Amino acid sequence: MKIRRKQIREFYRRHTPSIKVPLVLFCIFICMVPLLIQGRVLASSSRQAQIERRIIDVQNQCQIVSNKMSRNGYLTNSMVDNAGTDAELSMLADIFNGRILIVNSGFKIIKDTFALSEGKICIANEVIQSFQGENTSKYDTQKHYFVLAIPIAENVQGADPTVSGKTAGVMVVTASTESMFALEEGLIEKASLYQLMMFVLVLILVFLVTGIITKPFDTITLFLNRVAEGNLDEDISEESYRETKRISRAVNRTLRTLKKVEQSRQEFVSNVSHELKTPITSIRVLADSLMGMEDAPKELYQEFMSDISDEIDRESKIIDDLLTLVKMDKASAEINVAQGNINGVIEMILKRLRPIARKRNIELIFESMRDVTADIDEVKFSLAVNNLVENAIKYNKEDGWVRVTLDADHKFFYIKVADSGIGIPEEFKDRVFERFYRVDKARSRETGGTGLGLAITKNVILMHHGGIRVESAEGVGTTFMVRIPLIYIH
Ligand code: ADP
Q: Which atom of ligand 1 is nearest to the CA of 423?
């Protein structure tokens, strides 16, 4: 069963039908089914009415003859000559294309217009019922004939035969209705032809209409094919239906995002090339000038070689930072989350950075409101906090301070890295998280910055499902605020 369902799904996937198929089927169903039902109902109700009319007709005629027989004493008076009545019965049977039997009170057939069963006994249900004074009728829908049983009242002198009370015999009439429908068959044939014509007409119309209905989807497909070929500059405005309007808007939104991504990718590539080229250019200049100098003193050689070494360090740091970022950018970027003591991690970072801070007489303060344990990737998280504290030292004044605060509530933990540094001008505040963005290029270069530190920090915090924001006042100081959930939900 499972395999069958899989096969069906596979077949459907390979031969996915056009939207026109259900549309066509639906329209045909809606148009043709009522037409067919109506034809059927009309035919059957007209047939029913005709049969009923015929039965009543035969019943009336036979009732007249039955009354006459009753008055004549057909069954009760053996002295009467019944030849006239018999002829009338035969004529009546011929007119109805049927057969008439007369059954007496002993259930014996005394007259059969087919002259086949005279003298035989007839104890059919209808006959028995009719002896109780009732008219009965039965229609056989399969063989298309009806049976009527009409009581023949006993003759009471002067009384109305229909109300005399006693039944002397029963007239059984059997008549076929087949010939009645010969004409109708012809009509049904014509109706079927008409229905077939209607079907073809509906089919053509439905194909035309579904073609018109689905045209906007073809337009969208054509447009998307152009996008796939690389044309991102056009917008689509297929607004024939509310649905296509919605699709168009969603596509345009996606295109805008794609364009932005493409633009930032190009910017990133050109930034990377530029950043990687800068140290190489410096190295080349240093090397060329050394080579251009004949008999350069040893000290100058040493100084130039030390500068070249610094540039190589810088190049290597940029490459390391870039690799870190690229690794985190991947959709499958791994995060090895485990319970970690945040206080411990921060203390360790501050311990490592203290010697650098001391060089410029910057005070490093750690304020912990509580002991915090949370789900973190310790390596990545340390890198993020390290970048924030390192920046707070780098972009600080002599004799300044850096204050790291740790707090938590029942859901998140919060880290604040505040400094008494140079601050970030309001207009650049949102850009500092961009790759390679630096407010003061020269200063960043001086301090060995690559412009990638905050981009890495933000990526790490986002990987932990947290958030980061910055508040700053130029010349007063900067505060970075980080919020990360205590429990990491995959
Ligand atoms: P960099 O390697 O240049 O430090 P970052 O990505 O770490 O790169 O920071 C980007 C820029 O943001 C820095 O060049 C600097 O201009 C600014 N910046 C970052 N942190 C601070 C801070 N604490 N105080 C002032 N400016 C800062």
A: 25
Task: Give φ, ψ of 98 to 5 degrees.
Answer: -140, -155
Q: What's the number of CA atoms in the CB half-sphere (13 Å) around residue 144?
A: 11
Which residue among 444, 458, 474, 476 has the greatest number of ligand 1 atoms within 8 angstroms of its CB, and so is best to mutate?
Answer: 444
Higher pLDDT, 145 or 408: 408
3-state class (DSSP) for residue 441? helix
- pLDDT tens for 224-241 read 999 888 888 888 888 888
Question: In ligand 1, which atom is closest to the CA atom of 448?
Answer: 2
Distance CA 181, CA 360 (A): 116
The span from the CA of 379 to the CA of 19, in Å, is 53
Ligand 1 center to 284 CA (angstroms) = 28
Give the position, in ligand 1's atom list, of the atom nearest the Cα of 456.
Answer: 6
* Ligand 1 pocket, mutate which of 320, 364, 419, 424 (most atoms under 8 A from CB): 424
The answer to whether the beta carbons of residues 435 and 411 sit under 8 Å apart is no
Which residue, 480, 453, 472, 476, is CA-closest to 397? 476
Would you say 402 and 349 are in contact if contact means Cβ atoms under 8 Å apart?
Answer: no
Query: Position 237: which residue type?
Result: S
| C-alpha torsion angle, residues 311, 317, 319, 321 (rounded to 10) | -150
DSSP for 101-155?
EEEETTSBEEEETTSSSTT-B---HHHHHHTTT--EEEEETTTTEEEEEEEEEPP
Give residue-wise pLDDT tens across range 248-307: 999 999 999 989 888 888 988 888 898 899 899 999 999 999 888 888 888 988 999 999
| Ligand 1 pocket by Cβ (under 6 Å) | 387, 391-392, 395, 419, 421-424, 432, 437-440, 444, 449-455, 478
For residue 481, the surrounding DSSP H or E stretch is: strand 477-485
Q: What is the whole-number distance in angstroms between the Cα of residue 476 and the centre of ligand 1?
A: 15
The residue whose C-alpha atom lies closest to atom 4 belonging to ligand 1 is: 449
- Using CA atoms, how far residue 111 sits from 92, 115, 120, 459, in Å, is 14, 7, 10, 110
Q: Tell me, what's the pLDDT at 76? A: 80
Those residues whose C-beta lies under 8 Å from the C-beta of residue 361, and which sit 6 or more positions away, are: 398, 399
Ligand 1 atom, smallest distance to 455 CA: 6
Task: Tell me how far the alpha carbon of residue 449 lies from the centroid of ligand 1, in angstroms.
Answer: 8
The token pair that represents 420 in the structure block: 């008494």
What pLDDT was estimated at residue 311? 92
Q: Between 39 and 466, where is the model more confident? A: 466
Please state, as a whole number, how many other Cβ atoms lie within 10 Å of the Cβ of residue 452. 25
Q: Is 251 exposed, middle or buried (0-12, 13-18, 19+ CB in 10 A)?
A: middle
Q: 418: helix, coil or strand? A: strand
